[in-house]
Amino acid sequence: MKFFDRFAIPHPNIAIYASMIAIGLTVIAIVAGLTYFKKWGYLWREWLTTVDHKRIGIMYLLSALLMLFRGGVDAIMMRAQTAVPDNTLLSADHYNEVFTTHGIVMIIFMAMPFIYALMNFVVPLQIGARDVAFPRLNALSFWLFFMGAMLFNISFVIGGSPDAGWTSYFPLAGNKLSESVGTNYYMIALQIAGLGTLLSGINFITTILKMRAPGITLMKMPIFTWSALTANAIVVFAFPVLTVALLMGTMDRLFGTNFFTTTNGGMDMLWANLFWVWGHPEVYILILPAFGVYSEIISTFARRNLYGYKSMVASMVIISFLSFLVWTHHFFTMGQGALTNSIFSITTMAIAIPTGIKIFNWILTLWRGKIEFTVPMLYSVGFIPIFTIGGVTGVMLGMSAADYQYHNTMFLVAHFHYTIIPGVVFAMIAGLTYWWPKMFGFMLNERIGKWAFWFIAISFNVTFFPMFFAGLNGQARRMYTYSASTGFGPLNLLSFIGALGLAVGFVLLVYNIYYSFRYSSRNISSDPWDARSLEWATHNPVPAYNFAIIPEADSIEAFWDAKQKGSSLFKGKYKKIHMPNNSGVPFIMSCLIFAWGFSFIFSMWIPVIITTLGIFVCMAHRSFEIDHGHYISIEEIEETEKELRGA
């Protein structure tokens, strides 16, 4: 099949054609708007070429919100398709594509950028740094993620989306059973985005270990920074495994190797093992930063220092270690034997212990606290009982004998969402609301935020709790339809109603951003929450250099202690500040990588060679470039500080 023929969509329908039109009109509107308002220069100077960790964090945030709604549309389509028996809203082929893209978009292209949005903005501020260790690498990391996300998301209008599930098991993902280029998109787009994530992991580990302000020892770091350190340590060990697996899968599909085939010496279970050696640590890459967010928020709004700081740190380190020892519980039913199943059943249940320690620490922090139920606090408190349900059902799934009943049923779908949505989505919304005034200089509306919370929290349970019963009654996941005689109809209809409620909650979240942007006061202090950590010690908006004088911290909650004692964190005189220059090379290089990936997907070898040469030219340019950054003078610092104090 020639590659031009493969541009065709294998399972076209009116929804895809409507999406094509919508994408085209959106692109035209963006280009026309930038041209009319003469913003091309501003876009290039301030955003496309920025190496400022704060702006990169905001770009991660905007990308994550966009992908949240992209994946949410898939979720609504799935729930609508299964709402009633014998539904024909989606064909079997289209349903396969929808649940595949939903999983990848939500895990890789929504949850991951959300946590890196908060890490990018918050971590350097919490440790008193002026930027991350490698600013240009940080920019390249973002643009690699973004290009990987865009490459994956054009699949459904050019060539067809992947349809082998978000786990993309072989031989289902092989050429014989997945003939379109959809799985090629999966392999290449995840490679590109995953490389960006791996580079971010190295960058943040270096930043946290080497760029802390004086006095901030490892055991005096805020818990969110600790969560970022442990999560990025997992990234550095886990993502190379995914890279190798995707490379082998790409070679199987494009070059006829037999790593994962069931003939000619291949082993399909090799893919399952490699995928979950990455895939289960990935769960904790997402969850650990969420734990850090909740720790910051609960401590702030309970008006108490976090109970059991050392045990919280120890539990995160233990979780990061144990996360690599549980992957086989994802395929207890696939024949590895009783001894192996028993070992991984024990490790699976063991990892619940350090997680339980955290739950008790948060509850004891709340005990006798002066609790203020702000929107971030509502998400943090609501998370505890909902996530506990996810944890308990996880232990049920961890019992290998019982897993023969639960495996591949809707019970598993319910469990997964009861961990990931409260454990990640709730945390990201809470963190977004909490740090929003530091990011944008105004606060989100509390009343609308609380409406959104109650819609999301209640509708979440209405959506996913019925799935436990449907799964126990025998409903398999990934079924695109079922007959009325199965009795699954009422439970699935209830799930669909809950999904509509979730959609309303997320629409309210967006409306809150719009409403607050128009009407919220800009006259807020740099510390509107009366918070405890160093990011609140700098101005609103945060200047490019973060801190005019590097703070000196001598406790875990240095900012809170300084406020209570009436002392200053900033000692000494202003000195000129060295800052990195902006660069367009990361953006240009990532565009070339996007073109390289697209060409590789369709086996267009001449463009592959041309773009490969372009990528190496960008690398050579950076290698020979002489760029020592620039200095911000003392006079400019004084003027900026005077202006910000006045504001």
From TrEMBL:
It is a multi-pass membrane protein. Catalyzes quinol oxidation with the concomitant reduction of oxygen to water. Pfam families: COX1 (PF00115). It is found in: Cell membrane. Keywords: Cell membrane, Copper, Electron transport, Heme, Hydrogen ion transport, Ion transport, Iron, Membrane, Metal-binding, Oxidoreductase, Respiratory chain, Translocase, Transmembrane, Transmembrane helix, Transport. Gene3D superfamilies: Cytochrome c oxidase-like, subunit I domain. It catalyses: 4 Fe(II)-[cytochrome c] + O2 + 8 H(+)(in) = 4 Fe(III)-[cytochrome c] + 2 H2O + 4 H(+)(out); 2 a quinol + O2 = 2 a quinone + 2 H2O. It comes from Gottfriedia endophytica. It is an enzyme of class 1 (oxidoreductase). Pathway: Energy metabolism; oxidative phosphorylation. One of its GO terms (cellular component) is respiratory chain complex. Belongs to the heme-copper respiratory oxidase family. Heme A3. Its EC number is 1.10.3.-. The keyword Chloroplast does not apply. PANTHER family: CYTOCHROME BO(3) UBIQUINOL OXIDASE SUBUNIT 1, CYTOCHROME C OXIDASE SUBUNIT 1. Residues 38-554 form the Cytochrome oxidase subunit I profile domain. GO terms for molecular function: copper ion binding; cytochrome-c oxidase activity; heme binding; oxidoreductase activity, acting on diphenols and related substances as donors, oxygen as acceptor. One of its GO terms (biological process) is electron transport coupled proton transport. Signal peptide: none annotated. This is Quinol oxidase subunit 1. Its cofactor is ferriheme a; Cu cation. It comes from the Bacteria. InterPro entries: Cyt_c_oxase-like_su1_dom, Cyt_c_oxase-like_su1_sf, Cyt_C_Oxase_1, Cyt_c_Oxase_su1_BS, QoxB. The chain crosses the membrane at residues 14-37, 58-78, 98-119, 140-159, 185-205, 226-249, 269-294, 306-327, 339-364, 376-396, 416-436, 448-471, 491-514, 579-598.
